[in-house]
Amino acid sequence: DVKVTQSSRYLVKRTGEKVFLECVQDMDHENMFWYRQDPGLGLRLIYFSYDVKMKEKGDIPEGYSVSREKKERFSLILESASTNQTSMYLCASSPRGRRQPQHFGDGTRLSIL
Amino acid sequence: EDQVTQSPEALRLQEGESSSLNCSYTVSGLRGLFWYRQDPGKGPEFLFTLYSAGEEKEKERLKATLTKKESFLHITAPKPEDSATYLCAVQAGYRGSTLGRLYFGRGTQLTVWP
C-alpha cells in the first residue's frame, strides 16, 4: 500500500512565524501535491511538483513556497504565517502518467494564532 | 468557473435506503474520473477510477458509473459505516507537467442513520 506521511497531525503557530510542513511518500512517485481544505471550499491546490527540484503553482500559491530536494519528500513553507492560513493541509503523491490516482496523507491541522 | 460539480451537498439516508450521488464535469478531454471517500479528520481515500463513458466499477455497496458529462456513485443498502464525505475528481487532457493534476468537486457529505 502507498504510504504518505505528514510530519504533524496538529500544529499551532503564531502570526509572522515561518512554518514548515513536511510530507514523505514511500512509493517512488514522481508527482507530489499540497492542498488546503476549508469548509465549503473543498480541496484547493497550492503547489505541485512533478520531479525533484521542479515545482508548479496551483490555484492559491500566494503566501506559500515549496521545496523538493529529494524524490520522496515535499515540503510546504509558509513564509510569514497569517491567521487566514489556518486550515487543514493535505499532501498527496501519484506516479507519472495518465489516469493515476493521487494518494493522500492524513493531513496537518494548522492553527495560526 | 467550477469544472467539477457535486450534488447534493449533503444527503441523509436511513440504513438500507439506496441512493445516488452525482458528479458533473466540464473539462475538455477527460483522462480519468476518480472517486474518493473522506472520513472526518482524515485524508481522502481512493475508491475508483473510471476512464470512458459506459464504464462501471463496484466495491461492496458502492457502484460508480460514467457518462460523457457526469458520474454517479450508487450506494445500495447503505450502512452507518458508509457515512463519510465522497469526493469526485477529474483529470483533464492537458499536456506536460499538468498531466497529473486533478480537479476536485466540493464533495457530498453522506450520513446514514440506523
What would you note in describing this structure?
The complex is a heterodimer of chains A (113) and B (114). Chain A is mostly beta strands. In chain A, 0% of the residues lie in helices and 53% in strands. Chain A contains no helices and 11 strands. In chain A, strands 2, 4, 5, 6, 9, 10 and 11 form a 7-stranded mixed beta sheet that branches. In chain A, strands 1-3-8-7 form a 4-stranded antiparallel beta sheet, with no helix packed on it. In chain A, β7 (64-70) and β8 form a beta hairpin. Chain A is globular, with a radius of gyration of 13 Å. The model of chain A has no long low-confidence stretch (mean pLDDT 94). Helices cover 0% and strands 53% of the residues of chain B. Chain B is built from no helices and 11 strands. In chain B, strands 2, 4, 5, 9, 10 and 11 form a 6-stranded mixed beta sheet that branches. The termini of chain B are far apart. The model of chain B has no long low-confidence stretch (mean pLDDT 91). The interface between A and B is medium-sized, with 30 and 25 residues.
Question: Characteristics of this structure?
Answer:
heterodimer; A: 113 residues; mainly beta; Immunoglobulin-like; seven-stranded mixed beta sheet; four-stranded antiparallel beta sheet; B: 114 residues; six-stranded mixed beta sheet; five-stranded antiparallel beta sheet; 11 strands; globular
Nutshell version of this structure?
The complex is a heterodimer of chains A (113) and B (114). Helices cover 0% and strands 53% of the residues of chain A.
Please state roughly what percent of the residues of chain A sit in beta strands, choosing from under 5%, 5-15%, 15-25%, 25-35%, 35-45% or over 45%. Answer: over 45%
Sheet with the most strands, sense and barrel status of chain A: 7 strands, mixed
Percentage of residues in DSSP E strands of chain B: over 45%
Task: Give the name of the CATH superfamily of chain B.
Answer: Immunoglobulins
Query: Given this structure, which CATH class of chain A is correct?
Result: Mainly Beta
Question: Under CATH, the topology of chain B is which?
Answer: Immunoglobulin-like
Gyration radius over CA of chain A: 13 Å
Q: Structural class, judged by helices and strands of chain A?
A: mainly beta
